[in-house]
Structures are given as structure tokens and as C-alpha cells.
Design a protein that fits this description.
- The complex is a heterodimer of chains A (112) and B (111).
- Chain A has 112 residues and is mostly beta strands.
- Chain A is 0% helix and 51% strand.
- In chain A, strands 2, 5, 6, 10, 11 and 12 form a six-stranded mixed sheet that branches. In chain A, strands 3-9-8-7 form a four-stranded antiparallel sheet, with no helix packed on it. In chain A, strands 1-4 form a two-stranded antiparallel sheet.
- In chain A, a hairpin with a 5-residue loop joins strand 5 and strand 6.
- Chain B has 111 residues and is mostly beta strands.
- Helices cover 0% and strands 54% of the residues of chain B.
- Chain B has no helices and eleven strands.
- In chain B, strands 2, 4, 5, 6, 9, 10 and 11 form a seven-stranded mixed sheet that branches.
- In chain B, strand 9 and strand 10 form a beta hairpin.
- Chain B is globular, with a radius of gyration of 13 Å.
- Classes of the chains: A mainly beta (112), B mainly beta (111).
- Chains A and B meet through strand 5 and strand 6 of A and strand 5, strand 9 and strand 10 of B.
């Protein structure tokens, strides 16, 4: 079945550091890929998405490129802020049923 | 903007009580989902629904039931709450695509 693997956290960075959170997937067919963010005490919010190979999703300074050859969708940001501290979830949508398969989540902590 | 609301942000119930968690979406979405989120376990799907009065079991349906009498409302029911159901409960909805819209969550404590 489909699966998503994310790097385990927590990831701790200083403000203005470069961020990479790795995400790889296993899926049949051609999935859509997503990054969601969860701020403390809140639900999940869609951060960015990509629906086909080589697409780049971007939002709020975050980027991720759909790499079919490496089955990856790594999240990057050039300069993190304290306000980016949150849990980040990689997810894929594939097949019938509008279902998403989530990775385990990666907690990011950004220190001033 | 799509809005998904959940009836309570925080809830404290006693063991054995029947608990209702309500979720309402305002975008006429066909599909609705209930997840629970626990540290180290990520999101786990409890139940989902494709349409009014339709329901399907997810990965962990034991101890839960659901009701969808109207398209905009999807209720999660804990028939007899137990301490191992203490968790964060998240509702989500989507239309024809995979992009799910989440509510703010209900943190349930069962004592």
C-alpha cells in the first residue's frame, strides 16, 4: 500500500538557518503530494502541494519539488523564523476515495 | 475560504460516558473524515463518509461510531468513553480532490 516516510524530529534550528525536512513516498500510480503544517494547539493547514512530477509547490517562503525519480518531496526554506516552529506533515493522495496517507510528522523548533 | 468547525476545543469526560464530537463544514463537501492524533503515532483515520448516511471504517474504528444525517455535519460518537481514548480529534473535509481542510481539533480528556 501507499506510505510516506519523513525524517524524525525534533529539528532544532537557529533563526535564519536553512531548513530541509525530508519526505519520501511509496505509491502506485501518480500521487498528488502535500505538506501540511500544524501550529501548537491547532488543526492542520495546507502549506503547499504538487500534483505532477517536477511541479514545485511554494508558499510563505517554503518550497518542495515533486521528484518522481527519487520518489521524494522534500520541504525547504531558506531562512526560518521563530514563528515557523510547528509540526510539519508530508502526505500523498492517490487512487479512489479522496484519501490522504500521512507521514508521521516532523517537529521543527526555531530558536531566536 | 473553506471553514471546518468543531464543537469544542477542549472536552473533559468521565469513563463510561457517551461522548459526541461535532464537525461542520460550510463548503458543500461530499467527503468528511475523523482522525485522532497521538504523540509518536501521527494521524490515524477513524471513520470517513462519502455522502449523507454513508460511512466507512478507517484504520481504528473500534470504540467509535459516526453519524452523517446532513451533508455539512459529521459526528463522531464514543459509545462508552475510556481513558485510552484521551486524544486530539481532528475533522477534515474535501470535495473531489485530495486536498483536505481541517478543523481546529478537539482535545478530549477521559478521566
Amino acid at each position: 500500500g501507499d506510505s510516506v516516510t519523513q525524517m524524525e524530529g525534533p529539528v532544532t534550528l537557529s533563526e535564519e538557518a536553512f531548513l530541509t525536512i525530508n519526505c519520501t513516498y511509496t505509491a502506485t500510480g501518480y500521487p498528488s503530494l502535500f505538506w501540511y503544517v500544524q501550529y501548537p494547539g491547532e488543526g492542520l493547514q495546507l502549506l503547499l502541494k504538487a500534483t505532477k512530477a517536477d511541479d514545485k509547490g511554494s508558499n510563505k517562503g517554503f518550497e518542495a519539488t515533486y521528484r518522481k525519480e527519487t520518489t521524494s518531496f522534500h520541504l525547504e526554506k531558506g531562512s526560518v523564523q521563530v514563528s515557523d516552529s510547528a509540526v510539519y506533515f508530508c502526505a500523498l493522495g492517490s487512487g479512489a476515495g479522496n484519501m490522504l496517507t500521512f507521514g508521521g510528522g516532523t517537529r521543527l523548533m526555531v530558536k531566536p | 475560504d473553506v471553514k471546518v468547525t468543531q464543537s469544542s476545543r477542549y472536552l473533559v469526560k468521565r469513563t463510561g460516558e457517551k461522548v459526541f464530537l461535532e464537525c461542520v463544514q460550510d463548503m458543500d463537501h461530499e467527503n468528511m473524515f475523523w482522525y485522532r492524533q497521538d504523540p509518536g503515532l501521527g494521524l490515524r483515520l477513524i471513520y470517513f463518509s462519502y455522502d449523507v448516511k454513508m460511512k466507512e471504517k478507517g484504520d481504528i474504528p473500534e470504540g467509535y461510531s459516526v453519524s452523517r444525517e446532513k451533508k455539512e455535519r459529521f459526528s463522531l460518537i464514543l459509545e462508552s468513553a475510556s481513558t485510552n481514548q484521551t486524544s486530539m480529534y481532528l475533522c477534515a473535509s474535501t470535495s473531489h480532490g485530495y486536498e483536505q481542510y481541517f478543523g481546529p481539533g478537539t482535545r478530549l480528556t477521559v478521566t
